[in-house]
Amino acid sequence: MSEKKCVLTSVSGTPIFVFPGGRDGERIKGAVFDHSRLLWLAPAFVPFTKEVFEDIKQVFPDLKFSPKAEEWVEEAEDIRKKAISFSTEFRKDFEFVTKPYEHQEKALRFLLGMPRCGLFFDMGLGKTKIVVDLIRHENKKALVVAPTVAMGVWQNEIEKHARKLSSLKVEGTPSKKKKAILKATEEETDILLVSYDTAKRYVKELKQFPFKIIVADESHFLRGYKSQRTKALLKLTKGTPRRIILSGTPSLGNPLHLWGQLSFLAPFIPGRNFFKYRQMFCVLERKFFYNSSKAAHLIVGFRNLDILNEKVTNVSIRKKKEDCLDLPKRQIIDIPYSITKEQQKFYNEMLEFLEVFFESSRDSAEDDDPEKSLIISNPAIAIQKLMQVISGFVLLNPTNICDNCPKLNYCVKNSIKPGNKNCLIPAKQVEKRQIYRTKTNPKLEALAELIAGIIEEKRNKLIIWTFFREENRQIRELLQKENIGFIEISPKNVSKINEFEKEFENNEEKRIWLSNVSAGVSVTLTKAAYMIYYSLPLDLGSYLQAMDRNYRIGQKNKVVVYRMVCHGSITDNQIKALDQKLNLATAVVQKPNCVICPRGIECMVKGIEPFEDECSFAARMRKVSLKPSKMR
Predict the structure, then answer these.
(1) pTM score
(2) Which of 113, 237, 305, 488 is the most exposed place for a label (fewest CB within 10 A)?
């Protein structure tokens, strides 16, 4: 009878332990059973080599290891130690095209020793350059999946840091995308750049491109375990030996955000079963809906975070700006403004009745009715309406087309507008929305004064972030009236954002960058030392991403950030939540009352749930209603 052995082999460039054994093999980290060969396969790549080796010896003590396998265990452990001590040696013929910062060189040495790795660096620390240098060092083809607005950044960084590497950006119509992927395969392209949407739709075609490195830039796009993009990216990783995830904000304090990202590196890291993962790291309670027999398991807390932290730390490197750069300090200043009695009336009536009557809109083409009515039957919509009121306008929707839609909460959370491509209702069936503007707009007047003071110094440039398109429209009119040069990013031109970035950085006449805060990713605007949040976003990730657009490598001046605040309104809770790193985008859907309640943020921090004993609301209520204090 032949002796049972554990041998070392390679599958698509990834070292694997292969050995016989019974069902106890399930206890070995990452082991899967190959039914065709009746053998177990377990990961043998760094940093898991020694751990898996010890598991195999413990579960199958009679199993012998081949000399090659035993030698690899020692070699892999040496590679791991060098990686975590940032002492991995470069190839003798490798030279940097552009000199790296110290933290970038250390990160590259770490990546070289870790085939599956997360690079969690604060925005502005040069993650893209690190990966480009890695691709040059490894001299292997790479597939980079990134947000659409970041693809141009990747091309610029490749041209700057790896002149001899060829890259191709997949964009355009479906037929053009297929042709581009085919061209990359036939013409030996080194780096193929695709958006998350393209990756989701063209998995089969992309698998034809012979990449050995796959990169998920802004990997927090993989937070949704059921999302099509997450499923597509996990399919693309199969057979890829080197996998890298990049993000400045991989998680906003929720362990579920990490499942898809860790699975991208290797499914066994978080565990192949999402629900077991959730059970491990989340505290669940079964709660019944009001006046209903239906129940759901709701997450009320988290646990075992030390175990999760160890999993993440084992395969990633984390750097903050203060650890790496001697950047000028950033100052955040809140600019208060008051609103008119007209706005207070609308605001308070909306809170009290969730129904407001407006005079005929001056911006409407149809003014036949002497009065327009805005009926709000959903608290999540009311929150955005309150934000509009204090900005001097309200979007009217006479038909209330969204109120009975089953996707309403999802659309509010993801900023999906009626009639757009993700809406259930065809655009042709959506009436053109009317806009009511208040007679005066103190917020816009305060902004005008702030802009005048900043650009009085000719060398100063400014970034303005908005939340609603109507805000862009109002500010655009203001800048045009004052004859101030600016660049505006809109859904129509966002694909050219990198061209506008260069223009803003090099054209002295372009003083202001005007954009919705959701587009505040993957651009470097270090020529601007000033930033204004005209309206604060509900999503914490968007706020943090936008905040660092000018506070990064290349910034030589002190950065000042202004936040427009209307005290006594919803902005008070927005400021508290953002400063506490709480994500209101989720709370708007799950706890809309808490978002507006004066004690809402305090309760979220303390973990007080709606309608519990310490909650401001009565334990039993006939219906959910908003009870914040009125503005005075």
Answers:
(1) 0.72
(2) 305
